[in-house]
Amino acid sequence: MSYDNWGPGALSAPAKRVLPEVPAERGMVLEDVQSGWVGAVVRIEKSGGMHIVALEDRHGRTKSFQLGFGFLLDGQPVKLLPPAPRANGPVPAGRTASGSVKVAGQRAQVAKASRIWVEGKHDAELVEKVWGDDLRVEGIVVEPLHGVDDLKAAIADFSPGPGRKLGILVDHLVPDSKEWRIAAEAMTLPGAAGNVLIVGHPYVDVWQAIRPKTLGIERWPDIPRGTDWKTGILKAFGWPHSTAEDIGLGWQKLLGAVRSYADLEASMLGRVEEVIDFLTAP
């Protein structure tokens, strides 16, 4: 199955060609389409909730741009992503687990009306572990939905609007899936456009958003159709898998291996950052 077309936005809109997603790397030569600035990547950092790339031209001058769309690589348009995750390791001093600059003495804000919704408890725990510091500074609360079958009704009850927005992260949001149809229908609600953002990752379960190398494996095991996916994964690992408690303990082992954003797949990172940007934009 191809995942080239999954992503954010009002899902009822006509499908558009999706640009290649390329992680920024030092030395990569890029052109900013809007300004025409051409330079090599000399620095990538995250500040104020945004990833910034500094490009140095042939005269030694540098200019900074926000990662995302609007770049040419070898003459071809691309979407520029944060650097590809490297090795598992501790969070650098002065940084949060998401890679943001840690603000000394910053207290958590009172919770705002806007919310991030995720499908379940495990999704919420993963988002909290990596982005929790950032979200407390912004006053954004993460809430589990426990499934999206009644997503349209849940959004209607929430009554989104300016200053009361929803960012929703959905598992297995790929074209023509059940989740895709549910999300598209939800976006037809009055008030959803501009106030609700539904994005998703292509994985069957959020567990797969953890990079296999983080767990010391080459790839996630293939689970036969008809087998509960979480149960099958734990069985393949040789871990207890017979009860709900076994599932919960297995997840805690997996979550314990995650130390920072570098331990997650880029597709998960990009979607969560997109939701945070949407909810915190002026």
The dominant shape is globular
Determine and state the CATH class of the domain at 115-210 and 258-280: Alpha Beta
Give me the count of strands. 11
Strand neighbour order, sheet with most strands: 1-7-6-2-3-4-5
Q: Give the rounded overall mean pLDDT.
A: 83
User: What's the helix-strand series?
Assistant: EEEEEEEEHEHEHEHHH
- The CATH topology of the domain at 115-210 and 258-280 turns out to be Rossmann fold
The chain-level structural class is: alpha/beta
Alpha plus pi helix count: 6
- The CATH architecture classification of the domain at 115-210 and 258-280 is 3-Layer(aba) Sandwich
What is the first-to-last residue Cα distance? 38 Å
State the low-pLDDT regions, or none. 1-15
Summarize the topology.
Blueprint: E1 21-23, E2 29-32, E3 38-47, E4 50-56, E5 62-66, E6 71-73, E7 76-81, E8 115-118, H1 121-138, E9 141-144, H2 151-158, E10 166-170, H3 178-186, E11 196-200, H4 229-237, H5 244-256, H6 266-280
Parallel strand pairs: 1-7, 8-9, 8-10, 10-11
Antiparallel strand pairs: 2-3, 2-6, 3-4, 4-5, 6-7
Helix pairs in contact: 2-3
